Amino acid sequence: MLLRAAARKKKTKHSVATLFLALHGRPLTSSSSSSSSSSSSSALVDSIATSIRPFPDYSPRKPSLRDADLVRDLTAALRQRRSDPLARVLRPFGPRLRPDHLLWALPLLRSDLPLLLSLLAWFRSCHPAPSPATAEATAIAAHLAAAASPCTARRLLRDGLRDGGRRFIDEVIYTYKHWCSHPSVFDLLLLAAVDVGRLDDARALFHHLLTYGVVVSADACNSLLARLPVGDMLAAFADFPQSSGGGLRWNAKSYNIAIHGLCRVGNVGDARRILADMEPKAGVPPDVVSYSTLINGYCSIGELREAMELMREMALKGLKPNPFTYNSIMALLCKAGRVVGAERVLSYMVRHGVAPDAAVYTTMIDGFCKMGNLSAVYRMVDEMRKSGLVPDAITYTSLIHGLCRSGKMVEAHNVFEEMLSEGLNPDEIVYTALIDGYCKLGRMTDAFRAHNEMLRRGLTPNVVTYTSLSDGLCKQRDVEAANELLHEMCSKGLELNVCTYNSLINGLCKAGNIEQAMKTMVEMEAAGLKPDVYTYTTLMDAYCKSGEMDRARGLLQEMLDKGIRPSIVTFNVLMHGMCMSGMLEDGKRLLDWMVDKNFMPNATTYNSLMKHYSLDKNMKATTEIYRGMCSQGVVPDQNTYNILITGHCKARNMKEACYFHNEMISKGFSLSEGSYNALIRGLLRKKKFMEAWGLFDEMRAKGFVAEHDIYNTFIDMNYTEENMEAALALCDEVVERCLVETKVDET
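Request: output the structure for the sequence above.
Response:
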């Protein structure tokens, strides 16, 4: 019966706009009641396209005299021996009882629902194979339980649907009229169909019930809407009110489900149109959930301005944002690195009487963790606890992840132990964060200990876990162990990703096995994965360090041919390689090419060329590169000034060296040990002893060691001036720092 009705329903696809117009084609003035019986739906008869038909008459098979006697004896025994275990009461009847006897017993137990349900459960356990009689009995029991115990009725309907599917739906309709069921049974039936995942049956049930004049409530239909894919949800959202002839009217929750579905797939524009038309076209005013859902949708796609506009609209309507509303804004700000702005939102929220929940504090903790601001992280944790909120698993996960990212593994381990003491179970993400943190610090023993503990807890390492372990082994140049680990990963059905291959290629390059690294890149492409900029940069760096510049440049050309845009690190690797190989003119041409092709160099790019020209005492070329750097708007860094100062000192251009030293200090940069030595030596040559002595004191205060000849110069100066105490102190210092420490370093 239901199959035929479903087949008659023409399936159509609607655009969002078409669906919305269909939904709002007529004004809706009242909401659907929670239940509708055939008698209360008589006003809908004229508006439902299909003709109303009566519910079928129930005509069960009659028992024989012997069967009737058996059923009477059975029900009498059940009532008289109610306190005895059911199995003991039914033992004398067991061999003779059939499912039909259950059906005949139901009318006699109608007024005793607990006894009826116990008998039904016993029959189902003894006759696990679905049968028509058991399905009919389950439907009848659901009818009897619908008014007294809706939860029990819903459970019985779920059991029946699992056993009989659409045939069971026919049984519920067939038995409805005779057993005088409460009409809410059809709401419960639709809810049960959704519970067991029979969504097509639930949609067909809605339309089939209309032929009997029954309109399922909006609340029941909402459970179906929430489970449907977005396209089907929109179709049902528009179709159900039309099909019911105006009997079904969506409520705020219905619209919120539609808004949420659209936001989930990024279609916030149509979601906003639905919100705008809720009240004027459907008479349903948006609530806090409506606005918060849409605000979260805009935040999910990075549209802060639109989200803030909706916040203002909420305020005009007298709606007060809740913690979820604020959390959406804060999460977007944290994602954009604007954690200070997110904290201002938190302060505003508290000032306006909205208490932050655990999710809000977790967002802030995660944001500060990603910034590496651990003092702010601990402050947020303290505030959270003072508010009486207990950190949950997500909070601990964010905290552990942030500490691991910052290399604070002792603190991360302590938080992990606290998490365990709170009875929270860490998942794969927590263990992977710990493993990755240990691997980055080279603590492979601790990393594998965490890995083994993860396995003992029954957790399965994922690709990220194995990639972290592989990368850690590769950094320690244990490429063979990394390979074994990756084979283990493949044996568990996990597929290597680009990061995994890159870690292996990096390890092979560091071990000096560049040819094997190149073969691994070929294997990577054969596996359907495309090498990225990191892959090529790693290989180029290895070729540059081995002096094979032609092969490094060949890889750059291959990158460009494949449409992979090199990063600034790629160019810096190539520039450094050219300079180390003495190819300074090639380096200058590379720099010009980068500027011409809009690959903006950074200070490191220019520094490589400047350093090697200055080592060749070609300060004219060094200065030319420096000027080109400034003309391109690239800001000099600390290394830039140290290169210029050292170079000019060695070229005896002390005026220029002092100029750059003054400019460097004004920008907050510091001299390196080599620059101190060069500048002091240059000043001594110019007989500027006071300036030299000042730099000498400053250098030693910073823990730097002056060169031996500079110590000798100052010792001689003090001796000549008969400052024996200072001369002897410098003698002791030079012995300790220049001779003893050198010996220790050599051993």
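Residues 705-747 form one domain.
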